[in-house]
Amino acid sequence: MTRGVDPTGVCVPSAYDALDPARAGRELAGWVSADEAGLARWIIHYCAGVVYGAQVGRDVARHVQAGRLLGLFLIGAGARRPPRQRRCRR
Question: Residues 66, 69, 73, CA angle at the centre, nearest 5°?
Fold first, then answer.
């Protein structure tokens, strides 16, 4: 892959869901419901996951370059606080 949202394949959006699986489940339910408010919540959640996943991916790449990948998993790739979710305005 040479273009798109994550051309290098290092984004880990599921890391955001792992921070709060219950919230991830609630937001997914909004997508399943297919109503406007639920879909909006899911899109915001997914976008936050891409942002957070890119930060985690960057950390993984830096640790790989430095030869310290094991240390990353020992301290936790997701130690940083996730970005705040913004509410949709109607």
Answer: 140
